[in-house]
Amino acid sequence: LKVSAKAVYSKYSIEPASPINFGAMIKGTKKSQIVVLENKGMLHFKFCIRQPPEDASASERKSSKEGESAPLAARLSTARKSSSFTQSHLNLGMFTVSPCSGSIGPWGQQKITVDCFAGQEGKCEEQLYIDIPGR
């Protein structure tokens, strides 16, 4: 009886690298950018995009260590603070991210749309996390 196994772990890439900068926008306009999450490994994995915990300090939210959630920051001109979550998208201030969860098979990829609606004057900067459990 011959038995064999190969131990591997989830490998992924996020393009473009953080931060996503929408630049200056005219009030009342909308821009979209695409983020590609690619599975570069042999294992199927799930992902979930979420906002950082409210009690996380600024330094914790800005740091990314091996084995933690991958940070994805979005920056723009305007200021508003509100957030809500549904199954298909995440609203955070003036940004909407969709899809905000899913699964990617080996060597597959998922395009994630980040929409920005410049509703108010000012600057807005939010931080989002792409969580890949079990990596």
UniProtKB/TrEMBL annotation:
Disordered: region residues: 54-82
GO biological process per UniProt: axonemal central apparatus assembly; cilium movement
InterPro entries: Hydin-like (IPR033305), Ig-like_fold (IPR013783)
Biased composition (Basic and acidic residues): 58-68
Cellular compartments per GO CC: axoneme
Transmembrane segments: none
Protein name per its UniProtKB record: HYDIN protein
Organism field: Melospiza melodia
